[in-house]
Amino acid sequence: MKTIDLAELKTKFLQDCKILDVRAPLEFAQGALPNSVNLPILDDAERALVGTCYKNSGQEKAIELGHRLVSGENKQQKIKAWKNFIQENPHAVMTCFRGGLRSKISQQFLAEAGIEIPRIQHGYKDVRQFFTDELNSYADSCQLRLLTGNTGSGKTKILREAARFYPAVDLENLAQHRGSAFGAMKNPQPAQATFENQLCYEIIKLQNVLEQRPIQKPILFEDESRLIGRLYLPEKFFDKLRASTVIKMKVPLEARIENIFEDYICPEAAIFQKYIDAINRIAKKLGGVRSQELLADLKYSQTQFSELGLLESNRVWIEKLLVWYYDPMYTYSLTNRNPNVEFEGSDRETIDYLKKQS
Fold it and tell me: Among 120, 132, 164, 337, which residue is least crowded by beta carbons within 10 Å?
């Protein structure tokens, strides 16, 4: 039965190959590969039983137990799900954790049903290490560009617009978080390993495109703290970001207030408690008087919405939060870093500059 090594897998990644991951759901939740779907051969409880049997009675007994657990209707349902996936994704590959028993047995079950699928040699564990090594190598050898600017400058919008003509990676989208105490998105954040795997995958794809060009351009990233929600940027990669040349957006306070209002304020009652909780999380840094004033403003906005359906008063606490908290923090960070600023301008001037660099 066919296996593929990391070199072949890298080529398949560049082709957006789908991956059939037969690990247990708990393993998949702790770290997954890009374009992978979890259709486990053993669920969490079954895996625990087989693991205990392996420890107590050895591999042979564990395999026997696994075959008893995956038999009859249970086995047929799993094979049917795998066949459907492979029919929809005929170039897919299979993996388990180490490319060992589970993927071999799954591969054998499918072969008996007349379906061939290659499995990844050494499994998820080796691919995870491959992504880690590739990301470190990229940080060591490549140049990056960093888009910076005060909170509310609209950096993410400009980054996404620039991505249509300039190589760029949206870290906040990968992390499913906007990077501040107020930045939680509707979708939950991925596991740390999944985030790092996807980050490296995006870089590999862009690097492959850039290698075809006569002159390579540094990939553009948004200026982020090391923590994006509960996720963190790998140390070597983050250090490279912080040492990179920056493109600095200069956007007036009034426009930044409107950007925050548009991005964060929506006609849902739940947002007020969410932002009250966020203010409480940063209360020590804000100071008692200011945090209490912001909480009072937020509660007034909550009342305005619940009684009158109005949202305009939210601009008051947004302005105070920018001026009292985010602007001083940004100025302090940028002053300490003292980066090389290659360009400084408005949002539209930034786009024009990047077009000239593309």
Answer: 164
Q: What is the rounded average pLDDT of the residues 260-271? A: 91
Q: Output the CA torsion sign for 309, 311, 173, 189.
A: negative
Q: Residue 118: phi, psi to the nearest 5?
A: -75, 155
The pairs formed by 321-327 with CB atoms below 8 angstroms and a separation of 24 or more are 321/294, 322/150, 322/151, 322/152, 322/253, 322/256, 322/257, 322/260, 323/253, 324/286, 324/290, 324/294, 325/282, 325/285, 325/286, 326/150, 326/151, 326/152, 326/180, 327/150, 327/151
> Which of the following is catalytic: 17, 96, 142, 266?
96
Q: What is the pLDDT of residue 215?
A: 76
- The C-alpha angle 150, 155, 158, rounded to 5 degrees, equals 145
Does the active-site annotation cover 266? no
Q: Say what the pLDDT of residue 97 is.
A: 93
Residue 300 has pLDDT above 80, yes or no: yes
| DSSP SS3 for 18 | coil
**pLDDT per residue over 166-175, tens digit each?**
999 999 999 9
Name the nearest CA neighbour of 97 among 47, 45, 163, 159.
47
Q: What does the pLDDT look like over 67-77, one tens digit per residue?
A: 899 999 999 99
Contacts with 274 (C-beta within 8 Å, 6 or more apart), sequence order: 182, 184
